Amino acid sequence: MKVVKYHIGADFGDVKYERIFGDPRHLVGTLAREARVAKPFGPGVYSKTTHGDLQVADRHDPKPPSKYPVDLETLRKCKQHIHRAPLPQDQGFRPHLLYCSFFFPHPPYDSNAKYMGRIDTSKIRIPVHRAPEDMHPADRYASTQKSQLSYVVHLRDGTPRIVNRSLSPKDDRQIIHTYYGMLAQVDDWVGDLLRALDQRADRDQWYVVYLSDHGEMAREHDQTRKATMYEGSVRVPLLIQGPGVKPQTTTHPSSLLDLVPTLLDLA
Q: What's the pTM?
């Protein structure tokens, strides 16, 4: 089961948590906040969105969105919390939750030589694409809708490239390679968090949950990103480690709707 996100809602001014990089949490524009529409930012960030030809910005900040080091700031703040969080024996201790959400590996596809160099490119499998007339109508529609977007891919030398339809097998390889590089970078960040946890005296009392809200089509069925019920989009990692959790795997479908009640039971 997939939890669907519509990216619309009320004003974010009344949220009761700290926001480290402005308002609000997603670059979706007027649907969420009726904020200004910014001019196109150019290579390196979204050059188009599903809401039109202009980049929409939710926060009143002239900085191009992907230039803002939001993931590094998220990592820093989460490690800071881990180091400063009270111990169970401290006065006034209460169970607490640290929610560490990275924007990577969300598009635009943007990595660097350090992380892309870790990927064995000989093992990258390029999907076989079909002619539009041979596609299922749902695939043809999704592919057509996504063909209205531009994909920003950063090459090994750091040069941004706007990749437009129709995408060649070389473009496919570059997108997949870059996406894998982004995953490698997230692996490093998660490792940093786990090492910070290992320094705590109460490490054996923490539960660690690793998951994502959606997958990545990675050019399967002539698509990228999400917004489809294929396994590449719907299936996500869900790993739980902590006291009393037995090492095992399951083939049963799970729903992210059950995650919060499960965490409350564990607490």
A: 0.71
